[in-house]
């Protein structure tokens, strides 16, 4: 009984002293004697006695039961009560402190000794058992296990949540019926759990189930795993006892792993996992499919470099190892097992191992050969014209920049040719766009066939092409190429069911003489092409600086025309047309003038062709029509009621059906009869005429409007259309009249025209009559009307009116 230390809590000093002496005599050590509750607790904490002998009635507010409870709670020291009382109420209270004994005073030393001995033995056993439970609980806590038991007969399900603080305390037990327990399980898993419990409770043995708990949202789902076994406790009946564990994290990890494995196995991208020395550890099926190497073969490689056409360099790998993040993506070339090169988009990641050193490399790649092929095709489409496969404008620009740099470096000459097909719109309109496209494709092939592979041939759009070439020694080299191109173009174009003819106009600009930049060369080649068109088409023309001047004037005129219309800079002048037989002015031709604020009067020949090019002819024609209509309405009252005004109509304007409709409407609205107007058209209108032109002529005729064929003899003069179309006057061009007195051939032509017109029921107006001799000859030849400076220059409206009023409508020659 050595070193057994006892704390005595007794408020009666004598009894306390007696006890102390007794205990010491029995060989115990008394480590303290106190008389009241709080000092007893303090002393116990301080001394850590092996046992406390506790009186129930103490000094102060706290009695022995309370002090004992506190000491037991804090130190789990065994307590034996010593009391003079043993009535039921005291005993009942004393029980709550879980004492190891209850002695009623006075106590004999033998009784005291025996009780202490028993308490010590029991306490030893209790302590071992507590330690075991504690160990067990800690283990359960560490493994996050809960203990459950189900009393089958009484249907009570207890779940114990174990942790150090609530070691099997009643508050940590959840009791419920099995049905209630099962209700908390996800309906998908509940039947399996119920069946396992049922099966085990009836047949014995053990079970093991996983299940989900009911959750409000899928993301909150928790997975549990339960093990259980049936135990039979005789009269107490059967029990199922087991453990339960929250395995959500494990399930999630497993799930992720399963997904990763599926991705690895089924992805279309090749994956290889390498060790730190870049030896293959594993490859996926896509790897083998893309590279042709079975997995076993790759495992035998010294490292992954075997796969590459050009392996990554050592410095690259070193850089990758130090990089942050340690991932690289880019193009690489692999070698297929069959020797073919593979264009690859590759990603290399480093998986860090322990201590931050490299654990693995992960290689992910996809075969981008087909993507590259599509990209190449897109590149081609972006730089080429889909119809002809020639370079497009963008590509031409790049080529020209390059060629120009070359030519500059080598001090050599370079030529830029712009080719525009002549009258291609007519071909397109008459054959349709499908055949028009075929013609363009044939033309493109022909142009290309004339050039070397290193020369640039491009289609700029529509019927416009551009050719550039260098290595030029003399200008005659360029001449030869241009002639060859024109000759090739002029060859008949044979289509499916027909043959057509195309010509082209070529403008040429040379480096370095005609420009130092791509833009300048293209612009000047365009000027030159314009020159070729004006010189009569189907020819080539070298750029000359004057063209630039002309182009500037053209630009000024086209932009000035808008202002001219808005600011009333336009006006009409009228030139009398004289009836030869009577000398009377029966008609006048309205001629357009532009009084430019800076440049003075600009003749129509200078701006009408430009208005036609820049799309302003419609507005001009409309203005002229309105103005002329106003004049003729007034003059029909002032001069005579049969007076007529001739208006010149542009061929472009005439081709638009809507224009005729509008003019006829305006005429009707004005109340002026149709026979007050003569429309002067040129042979060009009839040359390209189709059904629409014929219909327009018919409608004008029906409205009483006369049609004059202007400048007769200067165009194509296909006489068949004189018969085909309904015309009223032929105007002999002044170029025939000018020499009529001197040149018998001109005279003969004029005579012939008058005779022919007479036979066809047309009247003739001779233009540009400047001398009395010319007038006499025309009169002798029965020409009906004349117009020219001999009678009057074209005059502004008021002057014209005065002139006629002065002479009573008789022209004074
Ligand atoms: P055009 O219709 O043949 O007009 C006759 C031209 O000859 C006028 O030139 C007139 O001034 C000129 N002329 C008249 N008598 C004589 C003469 O005795 N000797 C000489 N040397 N010339 C004479 P203009 O006014 O310069 O007009 C030139 C052309 O411009 C016209 O030729 C016509 O085709 C066109 N034009 C004039 N006004 C208009 C218009 O309003 N609309 C359209 N579309 N074209 C017009
Ligand atoms: Mg005219
Ligand atoms: Mg004329």
Automatic annotation (TrEMBL):
<dbReference type="InterPro" id="IPR001789">
    <property type="entry name" value="Sig_transdc_resp-reg_receiver"/>
</dbReference>
<keyword id="KW-0597">Phosphoprotein</keyword>
<feature type="modified residue" description="4-aspartylphosphate">
    <location>
        <position position="55"/>
    </location>
</feature>
<feature type="domain" description="GGDEF">
    <location>
        <begin position="412"/>
        <end position="545"/>
    </location>
</feature>
<dbReference type="InterPro" id="IPR029787">
    <property type="entry name" value="Nucleotide_cyclase"/>
</dbReference>
<dbReference type="InterPro" id="IPR000700">
    <property type="entry name" value="PAS-assoc_C"/>
</dbReference>
<dbReference type="Pfam" id="PF13426">
    <property type="entry name" value="PAS_9"/>
</dbReference>
<dbReference type="InterPro" id="IPR035965">
    <property type="entry name" value="PAS-like_dom_sf"/>
</dbReference>
<dbReference type="Pfam" id="PF00990">
    <property type="entry name" value="GGDEF"/>
</dbReference>
<dbReference type="InterPro" id="IPR035919">
    <property type="entry name" value="EAL_sf"/>
</dbReference>
<dbReference type="Pfam" id="PF00072">
    <property type="entry name" value="Response_reg"/>
</dbReference>
<dbReference type="InterPro" id="IPR043128">
    <property type="entry name" value="Rev_trsase/Diguanyl_cyclase"/>
</dbReference>
<protein>
    <recommendedName>
        <fullName>Diguanylate cyclase</fullName>
    </recommendedName>
</protein>
<feature type="domain" description="EAL">
    <location>
        <begin position="554"/>
        <end position="808"/>
    </location>
</feature>
<dbReference type="Pfam" id="PF00563">
    <property type="entry name" value="EAL"/>
</dbReference>
<dbReference type="InterPro" id="IPR000014">
    <property type="entry name" value="PAS"/>
</dbReference>
<dbReference type="InterPro" id="IPR000160">
    <property type="entry name" value="GGDEF_dom"/>
</dbReference>
<feature type="domain" description="PAC">
    <location>
        <begin position="207"/>
        <end position="259"/>
    </location>
</feature>
<feature type="domain" description="Response regulatory">
    <location>
        <begin position="5"/>
        <end position="120"/>
    </location>
</feature>
<feature type="domain" description="PAS">
    <location>
        <begin position="253"/>
        <end position="299"/>
    </location>
</feature>
<dbReference type="InterPro" id="IPR001633">
    <property type="entry name" value="EAL_dom"/>
</dbReference>
<dbReference type="InterPro" id="IPR052155">
    <property type="entry name" value="Biofilm_reg_signaling"/>
</dbReference>
<dbReference type="InterPro" id="IPR011006">
    <property type="entry name" value="CheY-like_superfamily"/>
</dbReference>
């Amino acid at each position: 009984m050595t070193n057994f230390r006892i704390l005595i809590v007794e408020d009666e000093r004598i009894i306390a002293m007696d006890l102390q002496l007794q205990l010491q005599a029995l060989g115990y050590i008394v480590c303290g004697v106190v008389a009241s509750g709080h000092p007893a607790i303090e002393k116990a904490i301080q001394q850590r006695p092996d046992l406390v002998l506790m009186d129930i009635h103490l000094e102060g507010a706290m009695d022995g039961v309370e002090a004992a409870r506190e000491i037991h709670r804090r130190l789990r020291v065994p307590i034996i009560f010593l009391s003079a009382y043993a009535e039921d109420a005291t005993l009942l209270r004393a029980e709550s402190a879980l004492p190891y004994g209850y002695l009623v005073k006075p106590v004999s030393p033998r009784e005291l000794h025996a009780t202490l001995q028993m308490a010590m033995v029991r306490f030893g056993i209790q302590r071992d058992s507590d330690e075991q439970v504690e160990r067990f609980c800690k283990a359960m806590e560490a493994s996050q296990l809960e203990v459950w038991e189900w009393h089958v007969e009484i249907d009570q399900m207890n779940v114990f949540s174990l942790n150090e603080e609530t070691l099997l305390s009643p508050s940590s037990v959840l009791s419920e019926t099995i049905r209630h327990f099962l209700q908390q399980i996800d309906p998908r898993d509940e039947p399996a759990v119920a069946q396992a419990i049922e099966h085990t409770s009836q047949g014995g043995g053990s079970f093991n189930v996983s299940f989900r708990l009911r959750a409000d949202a899928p993301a909150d789902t928790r997975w549990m795993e339960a093990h259980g076994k049936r135990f039979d406790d005789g009269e107490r009946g059967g029990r199922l006892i087991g453990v339960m564990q929250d395995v959500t994290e494990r399930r999630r990890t497993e799930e992720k792993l399963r997904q990763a494995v599926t991705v690895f196995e089924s992805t279309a991208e090749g994956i290889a996992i390498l060790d730190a020395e870049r030896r293959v550890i594993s490859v996926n099926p896509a790897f083998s499919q893309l590279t042709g190497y079975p997995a076993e073969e790759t495992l035998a490689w010294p490292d992954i470099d075997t796969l590459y056409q050009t392996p990554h360099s050592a410095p690259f790998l070193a850089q990758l190892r130090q990089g942050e993040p340690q991932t690289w993506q880019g193009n690489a070339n692999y070698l297929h097992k069959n020797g073919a090169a593979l264009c690859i988009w590759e990603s290399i990641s480093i998986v860090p191992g322990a201590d931050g050193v490299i654990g693995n490399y992960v290689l992910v790649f996809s075969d981008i050969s087909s993507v590259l092929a599509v990209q190449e095709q897109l590149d081609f489409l972006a730089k080429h014209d889909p119809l002809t496969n020639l370079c497009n404008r963008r590509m031409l620009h790049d080529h020209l920049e390059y060629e120009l740099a070359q030519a500059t470096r080598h001090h050599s000459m370079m030529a830029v040719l712009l080719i525009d097909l002549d009258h291609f719109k007519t071909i397109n309109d008459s054959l349709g766009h499908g055949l028009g496209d075929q013609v363009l494709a044939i033309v493109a092939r022909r142009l290309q066939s004339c050039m070397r592979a290193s020369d640039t041939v491009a289609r700029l759009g529509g019927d416009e092409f551009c050719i550039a070439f260098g290595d030029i020694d003399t200008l005659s080299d360029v001449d030869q190429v241009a002639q060859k191109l024109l000759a090739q173009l002029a060859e008949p174009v044979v289509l499916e069911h027909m043959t057509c003819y195309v010509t082209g106009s070529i403008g040429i600009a040379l480096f370095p003489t005609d420009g130092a930049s791509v833009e300048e060369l293209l612009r000047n080649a365009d000027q030159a092409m314009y020159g070729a068109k004006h010189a009569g088409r189907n020819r080539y023309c070298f750029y000359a600086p004057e063209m630039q001047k002309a182009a500037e004037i053209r630009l000024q005129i086209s932009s000035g025309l808008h202002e001219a219309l808005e600011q009333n800079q336009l006006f009409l002048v009228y030139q009398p047309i004289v009836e030869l037989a009577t000398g009377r002015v029966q008609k006048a031709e309205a001629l357009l003038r532009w009084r430019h604020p800076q440049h003075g009067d600009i003749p129509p020949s200078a701006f009408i062709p430009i208005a036609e090019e820049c799309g302003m002819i419609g507005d001009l024609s409309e203005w002229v029509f309105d103005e002329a209509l106003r004049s003729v309405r007034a003059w029909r009252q002032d001069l005579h009621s049969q007076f007529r005004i001739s208006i010149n109509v542009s061929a472009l304007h005439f081709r638009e059906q809507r224009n005729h409709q509008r003019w006829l409407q305006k005429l009707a609205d004005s109340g002026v009869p149709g026979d007050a107007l003569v429309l002067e058209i040129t042979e060009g209108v009839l040359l390209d005429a189709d059904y629409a032109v014929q219909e327009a002529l018919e409608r004008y005729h029906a409205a009483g409007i006369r049609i004059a064929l202007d400048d007769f003899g200067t165009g194509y003069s296909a006489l068949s259309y004189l018969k085909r179309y309904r015309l009223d006057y032929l105007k002999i061009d002044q170029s025939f009249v000018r020499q009529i007195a001197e040149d018998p051939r001109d005279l003969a032509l004029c005579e012939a025209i008058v005779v022919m017109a007479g036979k066809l029921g047309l009247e003739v107006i001779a233009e540009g009559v400047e001398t009395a001799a010319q007038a006499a000859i025309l009169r002798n030849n029965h020409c009906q009307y004349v117009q020219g400076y001999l009678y009057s220059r074209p005059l502004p409206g008021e002057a014209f009116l005065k002139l006629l009023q002065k002479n009573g409508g008789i022209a004074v020659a």
